Amino acid sequence: MSAAWTPQDWKKKPIVQDVVYEDQAHVDRVLNKLQRLPPMVSAAEVDNLRKQLKDAALGKSFLLQGGDCAELFDYCSQDPIEAKIKVLLQMSLVLIWGARIPVVRIARMAGQYAKPRSKPTEMYNGEEIHSFRGDNVNGFDPNDRKPDPERLLGAYFHSAATLNYLRTLLDSGFADLHEPSKWNLDHVRSENVKREYESIVTQLIDSLDFMKTIGADNGTSNALQSVDFFVSHEALLLNYETCLTRKLASSTTKEMKWYNTGAHFLWIGDRTRQPDGAHIEYMRGIENPIGIKVGPSTMPEQLVSLLNTVNPNKEIGKVTLITRFGADNVEKHLPQHIEAVRQSGHIPVWVCDPMHGNTKTASDGSLKTRHFVDIIGELSQTFRVHERNMSKLNGVHFELTGDSVTECIGGSMDLKDDDLSTNYQTYCDPRLNYEQSLDVAFLIAKYYENERKTKDFPNL
Ligand code: PEP
Ligand code: CO
């Protein structure tokens, strides 16, 4: 980062996916208020995540990132927060067990309120209205589509309340590995999934018993009683992000640096990663680890130039590359990306998002869905392509929820196209439900078990 960088510099660059408000004076009042509100995360937490992601980039740990496509203010409530944390904890437990390496957990949560859209408007009852841009811009209700600046403050307070409850949960032993059985398997229909999860829990309890017997675990070990949990969102609304960007002392060097204090990790979407655009300009200046979505339209040389811009010192793991090509496109694009990045000398965290390249329209012609086989297809090919190219997949990124929604087709509960309307709740992209999320974790865990033996991805 050049010494002259400031959090406002992006305003001189062309911007896409911007929100236009009617009353600029109202926007200014809101931004002034946001600027005075306290940080939500600390420099030490962000530095800690950066360290953990360096390990992930070096293949010493595995990143699990997941949560809603569009988080709603309404999800800021006890049950949905607990359900999401529970499914991410259970998935991470399965992954640790299978892969035998630590898992870094980042939730798409406590701020994932803004959405880029392919079209700024849509037709409703013969009238053109703004598309839903996420709860921090406008409402999903067609009568509430006018962008409202007050929603930016709503985003701050809902993020803060969500994060506060997440911290409360972790502090009060929700993530205690001594009691994984309390994360019960309500709503899981498949006997196989239940059996496999329970078998891991039994083995874990046995191992903990053994450790207690030999005195290695006296029940107060921090690593077993609680876990690190980080929060993330897409850095889309740059005015909001700028207000939460503060100069803080680095926990390691004590130097004053710019941190985004609204989340530990931020990413740049596939629609906003223009090399000379406002979003890249903003992202290059912050200390936080950042993600860049990489899609079929990303040219390998453009990817390298983006990496040089946002990470000129080539810090290992500072950037997470989240590939999302679609199940049919991995072989075509990923090898070139891996090779270009290798030659550039950058060492990113390679992550697969098997969701965003695999969105389809259901047979009713209106609902968006994703097929579990495509998701697993993209994931397994990404594992293989990395392996074949002497690289390693370091993590996964999912749109998921802890609830029993019916938005994606397939999985061990065998959801069919006809079942989608039973509990279709998403306001944006279709998410894996609780059981499908565990299914994916088991498949990845099995890949690692097989890797130790045959190096093959398990069949469905
Ligand atoms: C998202 O992650 O919700 C998203 C919009 O993804 P992408 O930018 O990869 O399309
Ligand atoms: Co999405």
UniProtKB/TrEMBL annotation:
One of its GO terms (biological process) is aromatic amino acid family biosynthetic process. Signal peptide: none annotated. It holds the Pfam family DAHP_synth_2. GO terms for molecular function: 3-deoxy-7-phosphoheptulonate synthase activity. InterPro entries: Aldolase_TIM, DAHP_synth_2. Its cofactor is Mn(2+); Co(2+); Cd(2+). Mn(2+) binds at C69, H356, E399, D429. Transmembrane segments: none annotated. The keyword Amino-acid biosynthesis applies. Phosphoenolpyruvate binds at R108, K293, R324. It is an enzyme of class 2 (transferase). The keyword Amino-acid biosynthesis applies. It catalyses: D-erythrose 4-phosphate + phosphoenolpyruvate + H2O = 7-phospho-2-dehydro-3-deoxy-D-arabino-heptonate + phosphate. It comes from the Eukaryota. Pathway: Metabolic intermediate biosynthesis; chorismate biosynthesis; chorismate from D-erythrose 4-phosphate and phosphoenolpyruvate: step 1/7. Binds 1 divalent cation per subunit. The enzyme is active with manganese, cobalt or cadmium ions. Keywords: Amino-acid biosynthesis, Aromatic amino acid biosynthesis, Cadmium, Cobalt, Manganese, Transferase. Its EC number is 2.5.1.54. Belongs to the class-II DAHP synthase family. This is Phospho-2-dehydro-3-deoxyheptonate aldolase. It comes from Parasitella parasitica. The lineage of its organism: Eukaryota, Fungi, Fungi incertae sedis, Mucoromycota, Mucoromycotina.
